[in-house]
Amino acid sequence: MIDLYSWTTPNGRKISIALEEMGLEYKSHAIDITKDEQFAPDFLKISPNNRIPAIVDEDNSIFESGAILMYLAEKTNLFAPEYGSHEYWQMMQWFMWQMGGFGPMIGQAHHFLKYNKGKSEYSEQRYHAETLRLYGVLDSHLATSPYIISTLSIADFATWPWASRFEYHQVDLNDFPNVKRWYLELAARPAFARGYAQPKDAGPIPLP
């Protein structure tokens, strides 16, 4: 049994979606970041950076969403190509692209555009422009690939939850038809719906 400590954020949903797709038994523990529960001393023992998500799997306590996804892929031998193969490195470069760009940058966009509208016109314009650029990069890539790589992988689990906040980013998915096709296909998967609803049901998956 894996214990998942998470909240209804893109980074949290990466892991619950992966756990559902991998068919792993797990128990969700809600860490309500709107109430600063991530700073509780007990959670600090699991996640030294005071951030969700984190998991405990027997003797393994792991924080950081990217590390958790890689751990789960290795544990199950699912949703990642053979290590060292061409396809593996294709996946990893896009996985790192999400961790370094399509996440932190568009997270800044919805910080300013949704939660702090009007406080910094410069920040709104800067991060919205970068968000549109990143969606464009993904759209061009998905024009020639059904998923982030040729098969469903942890790179999709990492990227899709951030795209699910397209409304927060003031992005119209109709402007990115390949992203829209990919997004809707994954949204229709039962495991994605179950994972999206963890650690509590915050409403249906947004649809364009």
Please describe the structure with a list of short key phrases separated by commas or semicolons.
four-stranded mixed beta sheet, 52% helix, alpha+beta, 4 strands, Glutaredoxin, Glutathione S-transferase Yfyf (Class Pi), Chain A, domain 2, 208 residues
Under CATH, the topology of the largest domain is which? Answer: Glutathione S-transferase Yfyf (Class Pi), Chain A, domain 2
How confident is the prediction overall: mean pLDDT?
A: 96
Query: How many angstroms does the end-to-end distance come to?
Result: 36 Å
Q: How many individual β-strands? A: 4
- Rg of Cα set: 17 Å
How would you describe the overall organization of this protein?
This protein has 208 residues and is an alpha+beta fold. It folds into 2 domains: 78 residues, Glutaredoxin (3-Layer(aba) Sandwich), CATH 3.40.30; 104 residues, Glutathione S-transferase Yfyf (Class Pi), Chain A, domain 2 (Up-down Bundle). The chain has a 4-stranded mixed sheet, with helices on one face. Strand 1, helix 1 and strand 2 form a beta-alpha-beta unit. Helix 1 crosses helix 9. The chain is globular. The termini are far apart.
Write the layout of secondary structure elements.
Elements: E1 2-6, H1 10-22, E2 26-30, H2 41-46, E3 54-57, E4 60-63, H3 65-76, H4 86-100, H5 104-115, H6 121-142, H7 154-163, H8 177-187, H9 190-196
Parallel strand pairs: 1-2
Antiparallel strand pairs: 1-3, 3-4
